[in-house]
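User: I'm putting together a small comparison set for a docking exercise, and I want a reference complex before I start. The sequence is below, and the ligand is LLP. Could you produce the 3D structure with the ligand included, as structure tokens?
Assistant: Of course. I'll restate your input first, then give the structure tokens for the complex.
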Amino acid sequence: MENSGLQYLPNPTDPQLERSPNQELLPLTARVNSQNRLEIGGCDVAQLVDQFGSPLYILDETTVRTACRQYRDALKKYYPGESLVLYASKAWNCLALCALVASEGLGIDVVSGGELYTALEAGVSPDRLYLHGNYKSRSELQLAIENGCTVVADNWLDLNNLVELSSERSPKAPIPVMVRFTPGIECHTHEYIRTGHLDSKFGFDPNQLDEVFSFLAGQPSLSGNGIHAHIGSQIFELQPHQDLAAVLAETVGKASQYGLNITEVNVGGGLGIRYTEADDPPSIEAWVSAIAKSLADACRGKNLPLPKLLCEPGRSIVGPACVTAYTVGPRKEIPDLRTYISVDGGMSDNPRPITYQSVYRVVVANRMADPLAETVTVAGKHCESGDIVVKDARLPANCRVGDILVVMGTGAYNYSMASNYNRLPRPSAVLVGDGESHIILERETYSDLIRQDRLPNQLRPDSP
Ligand code: LLP
């Protein structure tokens, strides 16, 4: 078992022990059936591919719900004040996921008009929607304001636009505004996904906060009731988050000197997940408890009333809940060098390896108990040498054309960053649970690919 795909199954030794989804490689419902085949949510993965085509994103409902519930319950357990979990939908925003997390009592963090529109269309209550972003167009701000969402102001242009827009609207209830700033906290993650250090494009510099708070205090049209900071993503350390809570409490104190009543503090997201056996992230409960205690202690130490604690995890909610299934194609053996097997997707459905050198683990869904007997490099089908899905993967011997290869932990920042590079249609996604599967994203068709194309008259084949 150590030397087969079975080693990746969740909790092989103690099924009673509830681990966080972010500490597992496969979704919580992953099992292997008597035919040696992988099942997720009670559905046979290879059969799902038969039915819905390949490649296919397979999203496990139980894993998403468990992660949401663990965040919610831990906040209740460790934070004496009110709290709200926002799902950072940049990780994967679509109607079904917005509705799913909302049904677990979560709000949603959106970063564009498109994400906001999707969440609204999914029926998410606007008072649980928070609009982020370092560039918000006026129409994006307008959409948020009209619907009564909270705006997380990132810069002076946001604040000035909000004041102007508020004067155009009726009735003139103040617009709920949070202030985002860079907390000046370093953490160990890929440089592209670090945001808390001072040299960051996001949020106000801490030096500007006095001016910002004094401005907000004099603006009856804006209700400056919250502050926000986020330090980065795929973080395994707890200390930077604890430091962040202390910085936030300090900042609540500063705002109160200007007469602002900060009732909401948002600590951002960032909890890492297990992509390989080498990754050992803290549990959701450990992350929440560290932050909650440190914020509560820091507020008590300053005699501040406890604000409502918001956090906005993305990756740890949806990342471990999904796998991507591909179909194996040609094999190329270069003697004494490397064996490649190509699959029917790649950097268009998962741009993370080529963008961040991310490492994934892979199993063969129809041969789960076969010994891992060879090392091969799984290549994507794009016309680019760097389009490698998994380098040096350990797989059963002689992977054959038609085998179903499953890459784990693909729920976060895969579909949301997918492209049509080389004009590949985006794959479908199915939601699985209790032996049922439901399409949540249709596979794009060739006609979808040319839907936005326009052929000027002079270029038409029948033009003179
Ligand atoms: N809140 C803010 C303000 C954020 O910028 C982010 C992520 C989150 C919350 C959610 O962080 P999470 O819990 O997912 O770590 N595309 C990159 C990740 C970019 C993260 C951007 N911000 C990747 O594929 O690794």
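The first strand starts at residue 31 and ends at 32. The pocket of LLP is lined by residues 88, 90-91, 109, 132, 193, 195, 230, 233-234, 268-271, 312-316, 352, 356, 412-413 (CB under 6 Å).
User: Thanks, that's exactly what I needed.
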